[in-house]
Design goal:
By secondary structure, the protein is an alpha+beta fold. The chain contains 25 helices and 19 strands. It is elongated.
């Protein structure tokens, strides 16, 4: 009899269980990528996968080539049509997922399954190009479980098992591989740029913009992701002083405010009180140059420039998480003397826009004369007592946006209020400008830092008052004081669903500590940190040779420990032999002792003759043992457990002499 070759075994058709597990693996990969795939492509691929799974259950065999080739061409054309090409992170991932699903159409042999699983694992890992957070990483790791179960189902010794029993062994394999993965993470030399040379994704959250018109902040105010984390050297400032300055906008064209970066201008004079706040900021990537600072910064951090209006700009876009230190004054006099050109710039209003708003501001000047503070208070009283409301879903505004807002809709959020207030001040002859940044945040007591989210984005105004300089005025606080004192969560008033539940909000903010650790210790573990990894051991700068040597030594040590443990465990405990010895002990108590030269088959046959009433039970035990011991390289776990259970339940009743 000629045994089949290894190649012939690889071409044998697979059973339904292996195909089902492969389909589950591909469905998991598709579900993981669905968030960044076009919705129509996700649905089409899901329908293709479901149809192939149903068709395979009806009849085995590959899908005809005349159907596969058009689907392949259609997939490629769909990706090119939607993305413009097949190169890049998004189109590459879409094409890879599509090809993975189409691979299922021709999967019939063990070789096809192994190729499909290899490609599925690669496609699974590409999900980390979109999100490298802790939860995303754990989900990707869990995606390896059905892949490992599929490969295990190809082993000849495997029998049918439930889905749970098929997936559980994969957890043990992942746990065993974790130490080696950690060793590789720490010691594999890192590059200063990605191996494939692709730039960082440019479509990440960009936070604040250098221009603003009513409605621009809507997406930010419902974005719950962290923008930055602030640690203070001493007591943190009170909530109503937690303003983080980003852009100062002077230029207004009737609908949009714009920041103009004036280079080679020294920062305006700042007379600060003795109260200076020191702090450290860890900012998420924005792909912009501006660095938010506590209002008002005294100086600029390293590799940054302090612009004329106390705006801090980095020397390159913030494409990676950035940590920087700052010092700011909470009480100050900013630019006590205002030049003619700056005054003209702070009073400019385009002609032909918002006539009713301009008339209202001019009427206040006539009523209050030179009392600028009274004019400011009149505007705040209008917002407080004039029937205005705070909402993240205001009515749309027309060409004369400020007129529509002040005299018709009476609803909006910080953009509308700061813009309208600034226009009113300029109309009344008071220099004014719009400032955007962040306000508020959640004080994380456990982590001792202030968590500022994108939803804390805010806009306020600054007016120039004689003898006081630029003074911050937040008109939003006149309408909704909770926005300033309690933060964006309190002001949302049901607009942000995740803020409605107090314990859920607290849990989410405390979870940020874990995300912070993950960002600093894992995703932020770069080449610089790796070179300083061995500093506690006296090696100040670990070069590539040192890291490679330690990696080789650690890997060999890990492999040696693993092999030794496996051999000792195999020698120390053979579960099938242990079950047979338990059966021998039970029979020995009845006087049926196994002889030194007696094999299992002869011994159990003799025991069956001595126990005629249990002959059938002993014959079944003998058959099961012989099959488990000699029919497989490794006894199938389920059959082994059944044999152990049968031995455990066996009770010898009477011996015939």
């Amino acid at each position: 009899m000629t045994l089949p070759s290894r190649k012939a075994l690889a071409e044998l058709p697979i059973d339904t269980r292996a195909f089902d597990l492969l389909s589950l693996t591909m469905a998991f990969v598709l579900g993981l990528h669905a968030a960044h795939l076009p919705w129509w492509l996700s649905i089409a691929l899901a329908l293709t996968l479901g149809w192939r799974w149903w068709q395979r259950r009806q009849r085995t065999g590959r899908v005809p080539r005349w159907l596969k080739l058009p689907l392949l061409v259609l997939l490629t054309l769909a990706v090119i049509t939607h993305y413009g090409n097949i190169f890049g992170r998004e189109p590459g991932a879409a094409l890879a997922v599509g090809l993975l699903i189409l691979k299922l159409l021709e999967t019939e042999s063990a070789r096809d399954v192994r190729v499909g699983i290899s490609f599925a694992c690669f496609t699974l890992m590409t999900a980390l190009l979109f999100d490298q957070g802790l939860i995303a990483t754990v989900i990707v790791a869990l995606g390896l479980l059905p892949a490992l179960a599929t490969l295990r189902a190809l082993e000849p010794a495997q029998t049918s098992a439930t889905l749970q029993r098929s997936l559980l062994p994969g957890l043990g394999l992942l746990a065993a591989a974790l130490p080696l993965a950690l060793l590789g993470f720490l010691l594999v030399p890192r590059l200063s740029s990605p191996l494939w040379g692709a730039p960082a994704p440019r479509d990440a959250r960009t936070g604040l913009s250098d221009n603003m018109s009513p409605g621009d902040f809507t997406d930010l105010l419902v974005d719950d992701h962290p923008a930055m984390r602030v640690s203070f050297e001493g007591t943190p400032p009170p909530p109503d002083q937690r303003y983080f300055r980003a852009y100062v906008m002077w230029d207004y064209d009737g609908s949009r405010w714009k920041y103009v970066d004036i280079v080679n201008r020294t920062p305006v004079e700042l007379q600060a009180s003795r109260t200076v706040v020191g702090y450290q900021i860890s900012m998420e990537p924005t792909h912009q140059y501006v660095l938010p600072m506590l209002d008002v910064p005294l100086d600029a951090p390293a590799s940054t420039v302090l612009r004329q209006d106390r705006v801090v700009m980095a020397d390159k876009p913030v494409n990676d998480p950035l940590a920087y230190a700052g010092r700011s004054a909470i009480q100050y006099r900013l630019q006590p003397e205002l030049g003619i050109r700056a005054r003209q710039r702070g009073l400019y209003l385009p002609t032909g826009f918002n006539p009713r708003t301009l008339a209202l501001g001019q009427s206040w000047r006539q009523r209050y004369g030179v009392d600028d503070a009274a004019i400011v208070q009149a505007a705040l009283s209008l917002f407080h007592d004039g029937g205005f409301s705070y909402t993240l879903s205001p009515a749309p505004l027309g060409r004369d946006a400020m007129d529509d807002f002040l005299f018709d809709t009476h609803e909006g959020f910080c953009e509308q209020y700061s813009s309208a207030f600034t226009v009113l001040m300029r109309a009344a002859g008071i220099p004014a400008r719009v400032v955007t940044g962040y306000q508020g945040g959640y004080w994380n007591t456990l982590g001792n830092y202030l968590l500022v989210r994108y939803s804390d984005a805010h806009a306020w105004s600054e007016v120039w008052l004689s003898g006081r300089g630029w003074v911050r005025v937040d008109p939003t606080g006149a309408v909704r004081p909770q926005r300033v004192s309690l933060g964006a969560a309190a002001a949302a008033d049901g607009q942000l669903p995740w803020y409605e539940n107090g314990w859920l909000q607290s849990m989410r903010n405390h979870w940020d500590i874990v995300n912070r650790w993950w960002g600093q210790g894992v995703t932020g573990f770069d080449a610089l940190r790796q070179r300083g990894l061995l500093t506690p051991f006296g090696i100040r700068d670990a070069d590539t040779t040192t890291l490679g040597t330690l990696l080789a030594i650690g890997s060999m040590l890990f492999i040696a420990i693993g092999l030794g443990w496996a051999l000792l465990r195999r020698q120390a405990r053979d579960p099938l032999r242990a079950a047979l010895r338990e059966l021998e002990r039970k029979l020995a108590r009845k006087g049926i002792v196994r002889r030194p030269s007696e094999g299992p088959q002869h011994y159990l046959s003799r025991a069956a003759r001595a126990l005629p009433e249990q002959r059938g039970e002993l014959a079944l035990l003998m058959t099961c043992y012989l099959e488990l011991r000699y029919a497989h390289d490794e006894p199938p776990p389920e059959s082994l457990r059944d044999f152990q259970r049968a031995v455990r339940d066996f009770r010898a009743v009477r011996v015939v002499k």
